[in-house]
Request: fold
Amino acid sequence: MRALIALLLAWLLAAPALAQTDPNRLAPHLDPNRTANGLAQTPPMGWNSWNKFACNVNEAIVRRVADAMVSSGMRDAGYVYVVIDDCWHGPRDAEGNITADRERFPSGMRALADYIHSQGLKFGIYSDAGRTTCGGRPGSQGHEYQDARTYASWGVDYLKYDWCATGTRNAEEAYALMADALRATGRDIVFSICEWGNNQPWLWAPRIGNLWRTTGDIYDHWDGVDRWQHGVMNIVDSNEPLWPFAGPGHWNDPDMLEIGNGGMSDSEYRAHFSLWAMMAAPLIAGNDIAAMSPATRDILLNREVIAVDQDRLGAQGHRTWRQGTSEVWVKPLAGGARAVLLLNRGEAPAEIAADWALLDWPASLRARVRDLWQHRDLARAAGRVRATVAPHGVVMLRIEPGA
Ligand code: GLA
Reply:
C-alpha cells in the first residue's frame, strides 16, 4: 500500500513536467542533465567542401585547399577545420567498416588527415544519421560506434552529421547516440548537428553537440527560397530569433558561407559575413580558397569582424530595431563594448541611426567608435551613431564606453 501511495505521489509530481514536454522531444529516457563535450567555446571556423564542390570533392582539391588555408593567412586568422562534406565514401567492407572512395581518395583518409595536421590544421568529415547520406552514400545508422572508432583512427577532429534517410528516427536520440559514440573514442571531436532545424534542435542539441543547423541549405543568393535552398536574408530571419539559445560550446548554425562563390556582390558578401559574425555563427568558408579574389580574401580575413564573431562572451547578437528595410543589430562583447550593425536590405542608400537606448546605454554615455570595414576610428559619440548605408550593405561598428 505504501509503495502504491509513493508511486501515486511520484506520478502527481511528475505530471506537470510531462504535460509541458514538447511533442518534438520524444526522447524522455535521455538524461536531462547530460552535457556536450566542452569543445568549441567560440564558434568553429574552417572550410567545408560542399558549397563549391558538392559531390565532386577529391583528395587533390582538399590538399590544394589545405595549402591555401596556410598561404592565404586563413589558418592564422582562425580557420582551422578542413571539412570534407558528402560523397567521400566508398562501400562498407566485409566487417561493415566504412571506407573512402578509392578513386577520389587514393591515399586514404589517414594519410590525408596526417597531411592536414602537418599543416597545423584540423580534419573534419561528414556522415548521416540515416541509412544513406543525402548524396546516397552509406549512412551511419546501425554503425554509430564502429564509424566513430574509424573516424578517430583516421584522426578526425570534427563530424558534421546529416539527417537524410532517417525515416521515423527520433532526432534527439539519434544525435545523442552518435555523440556518445564519439565520446567513447576518447578523441576530441567537434559535433556538428545538421537536421535543418526540423525538430527544434536548439531545445535539445546544446546537451549533445556543439552547433546545430537552424534552417534548410543556404544558396548563393541575397534573398528568397528555391525548393530546399534559402537565400542569406531568409536564413538570417530564421536564425535571428534563436539568439537566446547560443553560447560558448553550443551555437546556432545558419549554414556555411557563400562568400566568393560568385552569386552575390561584394557588398552583399560583406553583409553576409557581418551578419554571421553578429550572430556568433560558425564561420565555415565554402569557396575555393586556392583561387579566391583579393576582394573575397579581404572579406574572409577581416580580423576585426572575426573578433566580433569569436568574442569570448559568446552572446549571439540580434536585431534591436527595424523600419522598412533598415535594421540595427547589437551584439554585446566581453568587457562592455558592443558590436553594432546598420543593415540596409533595400535597393537605395539609407540613413540609419542607432540610439544608445538600443544598446542599453544612457544617452549621455560617451563612447569610442571604430568602423570595422574601413578599419578606422570615427569621431567619439554620445547618444547615437548614424551613417548612410549602401543598398544590400552594412556599416559595422565596435562601440566602447570611454571618453
Ligand atoms: C544536406 C546538408 C548540406 C550538405 C548536403 C550533402 O543538404 O544540409 O549542408 O551536407 O546535405 O549532401
Q: What stands out?
A: The domain at 318-401 is CATH 2.60.40.1180 (Immunoglobulin-like).
